[in-house]
Amino acid sequence: MDGIWLDFERPLLELEKKIEELKATSHNGIGPELDRLTREAEKLKKKIFSNLNRWQRVQLARHPQRPYSMDIIERIAEDFIELHGDRYFRGDPAIIAGIGIIGPHRIAIVAQQKGRTTKERIYRNFGQPHPEGYRKALRIMKLGAKFGLPVLSLVDTPGAYPGVGAEERGQAEAIARNLKEMAVLPVPIVIVVLGEGGSGGALAIAVGDRIYMLEYAIYSVISPEGCASILWRDSSKAPEAAEALKLTAEDLLHFGVIDDIIKEPEGGAHRDWDATAARIKTKVIEAFDELKRLPIDELIQKRVEKFRQMTPKSD
Q1: What's the pTM value of the predicted model, to 2 decimals?
Q2: Measuring CA to CA, which residue among 285, 126, 292, 116 is closest to residue 212?
Q3: How far does Cα 234 stand from its chain's mean position?
Q4: Contact indicator for 95, 111 with CB cutoff of 8 Å
Q5: Sequence-ordered list of residues with C-beta below 8 angstroms from that of 22, at least 6 positions apart, any chain
Q6: Which of 9, 12, 13, 111 is nearest to 64 (CA)?
């Protein structure tokens, strides 16, 4: 209950405060009232979250209390060992990469990581990778392929860092190379979009055999604010842009861009990190169980065809 509340969540605030207060008391006779308020809160929660518009889903995808990649890795992977550096320039804290175990599978993991505090956000560059981050990710994916380890990629970025230094060090080339190399990487690749899937910055680690999104994640060629600034010269029209972009998990499943949606706990992933991680883990294990049975040539062919067949669909 504590923490940051989005505007459309606020009707729940008073109800949940009352419920917590009742739970903290030991007076007789509070049972019926507690049950009534609990039922009322659950009913209101269902009403709110079954009628979210696209802009509200954008807000949920960016929720500051939403679990980030490292929160999920800590809950689904055993013996995770993080590896650093791209062997060319430096490390990039906006990208986490390493080796771990999920269920019966030893895998390579690459992920984009945001920061929660001001200090962490600066350190992680607000989840916006530099080219060396993408090169690090590719190095770990190739290392995994060398030893026959499948790859799990967790996507959560507003986009690749657009600074001068990043461009000077080959941001576009680094993204393009990842797309090329991932398309033919000789191991299974599973992608999960956790929060924001922003433009080429997300796609650079999102070419895979199975692509999943959390229920309230978003995935788009541009942010709503960026789209509004281009179309209307007014970033305040971001809610209208979000509707036009069709960037929700349901939209992307309809267009054939993703393979399935991972349901979030009622009220959003930020309300229950453990349940969210458990659902991701189950989906990832199922995908790897299936994909590891395919011959490598067939696996790569299906992956390439998957992206070739992505064409615009009418509403």
Answers
A1: 0.89
A2: 285
A3: 27
A4: yes
A5: 30, 33, 34, 37
A6: 9
pLDDT tens-digit readout, 163-210: 999 999 999 999 999 999 999 999 999 999 999 999 999 999 999 999
Distance between alpha carbon 29 and the CA centroid of its chain, in Å?
44
Helices and strands of the chain, counted as H and E runs: 14, 8
Question: How does pLDDT run across 203-228, given as a tens digit for each residue?
Answer: 999 999 999 999 999 999 999 999 99
Query: What whole-number percentage of the chain has pLDDT above 90?
Result: 77
Please state the φ and ψ torsions of residue 309, each to the nearest 5 degrees.
-85, 0
pLDDT recorded at residue 111: 97
Contacts of 116 (CB under 8 A, 6+ apart): 64, 68
Q: Per-residue pLDDT tens for 37-52?
A: 777 777 777 777 878 8
Q: What are phi and psi of 3, to 5 degrees?
A: 120, -150
Given the DSSP bridges, would you call strands 218-220 and 260-262 parallel, antiparallel or unpaired?
unpaired
Helix, strand or coil, per DSSP, at residue 203: helix
Q: How far apart are CA 71 and CA 274, in angstroms?
A: 9
pLDDT confidence of residue 28: 56
Q: The tokens of 47 are what?
A: 């009403």
Six-digit token pair at 153?
Answer: 């990629």
Average pLDDT value for residue range 5-16: 73
State how beta strands 151-157 and 189-198 pair: parallel
Residue 144 burial (CB < 10 Å; 0-12/13-18/19+)?
buried
CA dist 56 and 9 (Å) reads 10
Q: Do the beta carbons of residue 191 and residue 182 sit within 8 Å?
A: no
